Amino acid sequence: xxxxxxxxxxxxxxxxxxxxxxxxxxxxxxxxxxxxxPTDQADLWDALTNVERIPRWFLPVSGDLSVxxxxxxxxxxxxxxxxxxxxxxxxxxxxxxxxxxxxDVSLTTTDGGTxxxxxxxxxxxxxxxxxxxxxxxxxxWDLALMGLGLHISTREExxxxxxxTFPATPEGVEFIRASAVSWADAAIADGDDSASAHxxxxxxxxxxxxxxxxxxxx
Length: 218
Prior knowledge:
218 residues; alpha+beta; eight-stranded antiparallel sheet; 7 helices; 8 strands
């Protein structure tokens, strides 16, 4: 059974934006993703910050999630909690090896649910941006937001084995292509060349849709 019945439509639930900025005197790119969920603010906050619930849609998290504490996502990023204002906003550093970026998540009550806004700011290697564009990080967040949506709608735990193989399935390829193209369009709106942005999107699709046993090590 496919994980998604309409992958392009699910990808289309996310509004995407790219901004060019700077931090500490160096240029940055800011990826913004917004998606509404059909649940109240307290429930969505719990799904995002409860260490027992996070693995139901994402990955296990250990450490101290209070302000000033350090966290570790299993097999993924680590960092420090910089701000926490329940049930509205938290901000953390997002550290992968020597690379440090900054993640800010806010929740706003809307008619029929809660709007999640994810803002990820990073110093970007120009060569990597040319090769993959914003989809390199944006598609990863879209997959996480998809998993969160499945959990919120079903109240069930996302099967991690199915989630790991999803990108290489026909539905996964469709979802990732829709996501990557939308991130390319957001980069174009920020000033990137159209042809270059869409070439980078196709490179991103290729990177994400390789079967797990063939994926390059991160």
